[in-house]
Amino acid sequence: MARDSRSASQVAMIIGAAAASIAITFLAAACAAGPVPPRPKEVLFRATLLDNKASLDRGVLSYTPLSHIKTATVSQFKVVVTDVGRGPQTASIIRFHGMQVFQEDVPTGAIVGIRAVICDNLTCQGESTTRQPVLAPGQRATWYWQITGRKPGRAEIVLRTDTYFLNSSVSLISRIVYVYGRVHATAAFNQQQTGRKIANVTKTGINLIETIGSVAGAILAVGSVVGWLVVRARRKPAADGHDGATTSGSQGKAAP
Fold first, then answer.
1. CB neighbours of residue 202 within 10 Å
2. Shortest CA distance to 64 belongs to which of 51, 80, 77?
3. Is residue 19, in this structure, part of any structural domain at all?
4. Which stretches of the chain score pLDDT less than 50?
5. What is the Cα–Cα distance from 32 to 40, expressed in whole angstroms?
6. Residue numbers of the domain that contains 133
7. Distant-in-sequence, close-in-space partners of 56: CB < 8 Å, separation ≥ 6
8. What are the helix (H) ranges across the chain?
9. What is the pLDDT of residue 237?
10. Do residue 208 and residue 100 come from a single domain?
11. Mean of per-residue pLDDT scores for the chain
């Protein structure tokens, strides 16, 4: 039995050593071979992506400022992207035809998509196709939103732009555009707020009157009970005195 167990353990050790040797051999071969090269399709895709980026034009994005937004009033918010061709930017423009200009390049010469990803203190309703072609210098595309102010105070719209190559779903370059403004109160909004305040004050006064009435009623009820107890307490001694006098009188008559 001892010999059999020793033979089995020796066989197991030999098998384990052989497996470890094979694993080390494969690992060494993998390290010597280096990283796995990318597939031909991935190489082609990367090359095409780089070529597409290199072929893009410069684009200028402008938008209407959020300076005249009013509560519960619908206004139009417009964004325009214009292809200005290639080459370095020679001038910095802040405003263009009354519109605010985004100070970063929005690549064109391709399909441009714009979405409003955040509308803070505003209700935004898009009215344009998200993706539009801006393919050549001088060409432009326009996006419209109907926006409504919610309450007086700070407002913000965050736009995301994506540049696509033709019908591809892969964004070549994206930008985030922050647009800040304020919502102003209208006369109707102020009247409505005043009416609400008056209604709240009136409701509070009514509740206070009801509370005072309830307390007064409770006080009257307690006073009535206390008065009844006092009257009862006064009547009881008088009744006792009257009974005593009658007894004495009867006793005096019985004496003779």
1. 10
2. 77
3. no
4. 2, 244-256
5. 22
6. 57-185
7. 107, 108, 109, 110, 163, 172, 173
8. 2-33, 40-54, 187-254
9. 60
10. no
11. 78
What was the pLDDT predicted at 165?
A: 87
User: Which residues partner with 12 through β-bridges?
Assistant: none
CB 183 within 8 A of CB 120: no
Nearest to 56 by CA among 174, 177, 176, 178: 174
169: Cβ–Cβ under 8 A, 6 or more apart, which residues? none
160 with 199, same domain: the answer is no
The pLDDT of residue 19 is: 64
Whole-structure pTM value: 0.60
Run of H or E including 158: strand 153-164
Judgement on whether residues 164 and 67 belong to the same structural domain of the protein: yes
**Residue 252 identity:** G
Identity of the residue numbered 134? V
Classify 249 as helix, strand or coil: helix
Q: How many domains are contained in the chain?
A: 2
CB atoms within 10 A of CB 1: 5
Nearest to residue 69, comparing CAs of 158, 159, 184?
A: 184
Identity of the residue numbered 159: L
User: Smallest Cα–Cα separation from 209: which of 72, 21, 201, 249?
Assistant: 201
Q: What pLDDT is stored for residue 58 in this prediction?
A: 95
The answer to whether 122 touches 146, Cβ cutoff 8 Å, is: no
Q: Report d(CA 146, CA 122) in Å as an integer.
A: 10
Question: How many other β-carbons are positioned within 10 Å of the β-carbon of residue 32?
Answer: 7
Pick from 133, 145, 152, 163: nearest CA to 53: 163
Strand, coil or helix: 115 = strand
CB 156 within 8 A of CB 118: yes
